[in-house]
Specification:
Elements: H1 2-13, H2 22-40, H3 45-60, H4 78-87, H5 90-102, H6 106-110, H7 114-120, H8 123-134, H9 139-146, H10 153-162, H11 166-181, H12 183-193, H13 197-200, H14 212-229, H15 234-249, H16 253-277, H17 281-284, H18 287-317, H19 336-348, H20 355-379
Helix pairs in contact: 2-3, 3-11, 3-16, 4-16, 5-10, 5-15, 5-16, 7-18, 7-20, 8-9, 8-18, 9-10, 10-11, 10-20, 11-18, 12-18, 12-19, 14-15, 15-16, 19-20
Length: 382
Amino acid sequence: MSYIVDTLSNLIHSTAFFNLTWGNYLMILVALVFLYLAIKHGFEPLLLVPIAFGMLLVNIYPDIMARPEDMSNGVGGLLHYFYLLDEWSILPSLIFMGVGAMTDFGPLIANPISFLMGAAAQLGIYMAYFLAIFLGFNGKAAAAISIIGGADGPTSIFLAGKLGQTTLMGPIAVAAYSYMSLVPIIQPPIMKLFTTEEERKIKMQQLRPVSKLEKILFPIVITIVVCLILPSTAPLVGMLMLGNLFRESGVVGQLTETASNALMYIVVILLGTSVGASTSAEAFLNVDTLKIVVLGLVAFACGTAGGVLLGKLLCKLTHGKINPLIGSAGVSAVPMAARVSQKVGAEADPTNFLLMHAMGPNVAGVIGTAVAAGTFMAIFGV
């Protein structure tokens, strides 16, 4: 009889109910909210579903992220090995290759002034950097946190790993991906605040045709120029441009298809679940995490405002030929930010079509965020 009682007692006490803290239950609730937003409201489900599920798993079964040295059998948890690919910058770089293979850089080539709006949208990164230092973070931590302002999850993970901020990588990555997912909610009020109804109705002229030669030369030239100036950006900029060269060369269709579909989605699964699994209650529920979430929001809002304000300036300088709304797409959430520019413009005038124009600053923002990350690595000698 005692054997049966002991067996039942062991079974009961091995359940998660006896091992979870209030913090774990809170994080489980957060994960469920993320899943609801992703599934019910369609807030970037490709990002939020794996992130939320990783968050759910680690707070029910923390050992899924355990390191080998912490386990009696010397074998780490499943998602620990996924997470190592984040720390080693492998998954962020592969994501960039997939983005390059999926994205048409033609709008940026056709309208080089888009580079300026992409650069202006990085304002939030540098503002967040100094604000993070003011709030008590060291230089490297502040740099890693500030990249959230670019609305670029892979670059945030990449820089945090390069600067040795692995303890902050979870909160930084979740904040970055959360704000990427919430672009349709966060950006429109800021865009409307800084523009008038008349400005939002501005129709832009059709972009000039871009030749195949230009599209082939662009990724090669950008790689050479950017990587010569900031060699540390090679893993991100190089993979982004390699993916785009696959697309534009027209001779490696199989590689383009793989990079933009099968490989991209595999990497999203690995990266999303491992990022979510870095949010155990012990690692996530602290004052620093709250600061990171607030700093990320401030950075993202300032980046959006910076792009729009430069758009307004260019609108005046070109006598109304540029719609300021496309400046908001200078954050590197591709193509979500460009879609938001289109949506807000269409609300002012249903016949207004800004999507392709907004893709120029959007692509420039991807490059700009990678350059910002490379600048921080150069500053800290990484």
